[in-house]
Specification:
Layout: H1 3-33, H2 38-55, H3 66-85, H4 95-114, H5 120-129, H6 137-156, H7 158-166, H8 168-173, H9 178-200, H10 202-219, H11 223-248, H12 252-295
Helix pairs in contact: 1-6, 1-7, 1-9, 1-10, 1-11, 2-3, 2-4, 2-9, 2-10, 3-9, 6-9, 9-10, 10-11, 10-12, 11-12
Length: 296
């Protein structure tokens, strides 16, 4: 591969690594909470905010204007507030139902807003699959600083975040205010989603969040091992997806999404073989130890 091509792909690849790092971690929480589509819903709410912002004279129709980002973030915070208040142990309406409704309404709202904008089809495409190849080094730097700060925030308060995700009843018994920390979780999540959608689009952000976590659950039970598997998978898939999109002249975001799906299928197909092989090896080692003990 030509050196100039590698230089061109460096920023998108580093951006994909940053996305992998934060989303694979947040994905562990999302999967444990059972709110699988919260990322998709928040991402769509962020996209709705950005679409409405583009229609405002203050943005001049520029989707990359700073004010567009802040309006999009405000919409995301509103969604975070809603999601943090609907969680209840004996709620009549499941939380996933509310999340799905928010996604559908946000999607329809974005389509209605785009019908009043110029080049709406191109904007819709950018919202769905993004344009990660167009990311610049300044964007990568800002994203890294923001995600680093959010990662530090989650690390400092990791016991509270893990408690309300893994065992909310125990967390409530320990006196942790669930709704308050739920809002902190979804608000920080909103920062990540708003920035990620601007770079990678709704579908790719969803894949970075859910697919590595689901794949990791096939092979690991502990949080540390899940993160290791998720980060490894995200790194490999990002590199492979970018390479294939360049080699086959395909849209990068959609190519990475499909690569995630293919790799997940392969990992799921290999799991029975690997799990069958591990007990067999353990049994052989036990037999060898038994024979060795008798000969002594």
């Amino acid at each position: 591969m030509d050196t100039s091509v590698l230089v061109f792909l460096a920023a998108p690849f580093v951006a994909s690594l940053i996305l992998t790092g934060i989303h694979a971690y947040l994905g562990v929480h999302v999967v444990e909470r059972g709110v699988i589509f919260v990322d998709l819903s928040l991402a769509q709410i962020a996209a709705l905010g950005a679409t409405i912002a583009i229609l405002m004279p203050i943005t001049g129709g520029d989707p990359h204007a700073p004010i567009t980002y802040w309006i999009s973030l405000a919409f995301t915070f509103l969604g975070a507030l809603v999601f943090s208040t609907i969680r209840a142990r004996h709620a009549r309406i499941p939380q996933e139902a509310i999340i799905g409704i928010c996604y559908a309404v946000a999607s329809a709202g974005a389509i209605l807003a785009m019908s009043k904008a110029t080049s709406e089809s191109e904007h819709l495409k950018d919202m769905l699959v993004g344009n990660i190849l167009a990311v610049s080094w300044p964007e990568v730097g800002k994203t890294a600083i923001l995600y680093g700060a959010i990662g530090a925030f989650h690390y400092i308060f990791r016991h509270k975040f893990l408690a309300i995700s893994l065992d909310p009843r125990k967390a409530e018994a320990e006196g942790i205010p669930i709704k308050v920390w739920d809002f902190f979780f979804y608000a920080s999540f909103g920062f990540v989603v708003t920035s990620s959608v601007a770079i990678a689009g709704v579908l790719l952000v969803f894949c970075y969040l859910i697919v590595p976590s689901v794949a990791a659950m096939l092979y690991a039970d502990t949080i540390g091992r899940r993160l290791a598997i998720g980060w490894s998978m995200g790194t490999v898939v990002s590199a492979l997806g970018i390479y294939l999109s360049l080699k086959l002249d395909l849209p990068t975001g959609a190519t990475i999404v499909c690569t995630f799906g293919i790799v997940l299928i392969i990992m799921a197909a290999m799991r029975p073989l690997i799990h069958r092989e591990i007990p067999a090896r353990a049994h052989q080692m036990d037999q060898a130890d038994h024979v060795h003990g008798r000969t002594r």
